[in-house]
Design brief:
The chain is of the alpha/beta class. The chain has one domain. It is 31% helix and 18% strand. The chain contains 13 helices and 18 strands. The strands form 6 sheets. A 6-stranded parallel β-sheet has the order 7-1-8-9-13-18, with helices on both faces. Helix 5 links the parallel strand 8 and strand 9. Helix 2 packs across helix 4 and helix 4 packs across helix 5. The protein is globular, with a radius of gyration of 21 Å.
């Protein structure tokens, strides 16, 4: 088998214990819903919240057709802060084809845990207390939304369905099911909802929580600054930036393209509580629009780090623009009826919002500066965390949670969020 075929088969195999656990819980429970209304809930963690593991041995292109590996944690461990985060770097080997560093297969396996600290603990305990038939779908957040979505729909769901039917006395877990995605995980469930795949026929609800439909400022900083907690006081910054530039998924997290903004400008400005009154990225000196997806040049100057030094990929940028436009495209009435967007406001008004952007080189100091703050969850400004036309198609389907505790990383565990999800799923709270 090819590297890519092996990666997919290994990803499914690594999830077998989680499927076994689902089967055990399913058989031990009658479900919290009324008879005949039992449903499966798939949860997609936010970006960087899925644990990644790396094969101990390299993939051998001349090896046996079915290569099976043992794995070590690579994300998140203490070594991630000591330079190992750079080992997450990917290598493009063809259009939409990537190998991992040293041709070692990397797959997602559960939610990250660091010294006993694990996100989504409250959400998972709530699912268990209510006997929900839930499955946490960890995903490789380095990869493009369509890559993850295709793996879930084309490869995982048929396998999951067959295993559960065999292990649960013929019960079909996809007869009725819902998808929930936090942050970037909501981008994947948005894509899945729009796929039109026959296996998605039983899809009941799609819930996004704090998902950046129109991007946010955080990703613009990463191209030049890396990640503060992974940079090792500057020792590993260049390696971290090279790794980030190799991740197709990261190209999809930026502010919306200017041409999309021009189409939706009035709708973005007409949000009664959270209006976006100007394009959120502007040139430092001229204040003209600086579109992340149309970066242009100024003589020998450009907007992004160089491909030669850091691997910034303009082909990935163009591909990501298509994904962003697709995820923000008009909803059919049927899609809107099953779509729910939950956003948050900590009432602090201190979420980073608009940015200014200088030309490079140099890239140090960073050319990205935040120029305003807004109401939001501390990461996502509230204006970005919903599809702007959902409310007009499905009134009440955009839900704003206002609480000083409604910060981005803890939002899924917040009782107010869980209460809204319970209402959407039709279960007691």
């Amino acid at each position: 088998m090819s590297y890519e075929t092996t990666r997919i088969s290994e990803q499914i195999r690594v999830l077998d214990p989680a499927i076994d656990d689902f089967i055990d819980r399913y058989n031990a429970s009658t479900g919290s819903a009324a008879p005949g209304a039992r449903q499966t809930v798939f949860f997609f963690p936010g970006g960087m919240a899925s644990r990644l593991v790396r094969a101990e041995d390299e993939f051998d292109p001349k090896g046996p057709p079915n290569q099976v590996f043992d794995y070590d944690d690579i994300w998140l461990t203490v070594f991630s802060f000591l330079g190992e985060a750079a080992d997450l770097r990917m290598k493009k080997v063809g259009p939409n084809q990537y190998h991992d560093k040293d041709k070692r297969v990397i797959v997602a396996d559960g939610i990250v845990s660091f010294f006993g600290i694990r996100p989504y603990r409250g959400f998972i305990e709530w699912c268990e207390d209510n006997e929900l038939d839930y499955f946490v779908f960890p995903w490789d957040w380095r990869r493009a939304v369509y890559d993850v979505g295709d793996l879930f729909i084309t490869h995982f769901l048929p396998y999951f369905q067959a295993r559960v039917i065999a292990g649960c006395n013929g019960a079909d877990p996809l007869q009725r099911f819902s998808l929930i995605g936090h942050s970037a995980g909501g981008m994947v469930v948005n894509w899945a909802m729009r796929s039109g795949a026959p296996i998605m026929a039983g899809l009941d609800n799609v819930i996004t929580v704090a998902t950046p439909f129109y991007g946010y400022s955080g990703q613009l900083h990463r191209w030049f600054e890396g990640e503060e907690y992974l940079n090792g006081f500057g020792l590993f910054t260049e390696g971290v930036i090279r790794a980030i530039c190799s991740f197709p998924g990261c190209y999809e997290w930026m502010f919306l393209p200017d041409d999309l903004y021009l189409v939706e400008q009035a709708a973005l400005a007409n949000d009664a509580e959270y209006p976006l009154n100007a394009y959120p990225s502007a040139d430092l000196t001229t204040a003209v629009i600086a579109d992340p997806y149309n970066p242009q040049t100024k003589g020998a100057l450009q907007r992004y780090p160089s491909f030669t030094k850091f691997g910034f990929d303009y082909i990935e940028l163009a591909s990501a623009k298509a994904v962003v436009i697709f995820l923000a495209s008009p909803l059919s009435q049927g899609e809107a009826d099953r779509f729910w967007n939950i956003r948050a406001d900590t009432n602090a008004g201190d979420t980073l919002n608009e940015t200014t952007w200088n030309w490079v080189p140099p890239t140090d100091p960073t050319p990205i500066q935040d120029s305003s703050v807004f109401r939001g969850d501390g990461v996502q400004p509230a204006w970005t965390a919903r599809h702007i036309h959902l409310e007009e198609l499905a009134p009440g389907h955009v839900i704003s949670i206002k609480s000083k505790f409604a910060n981005h990383k803890d939002l899924m565990d917040l009782p107010a969020t869980l209460q809204e999800i319970a209402g959407i799923l039709g279960i007691p709270f």
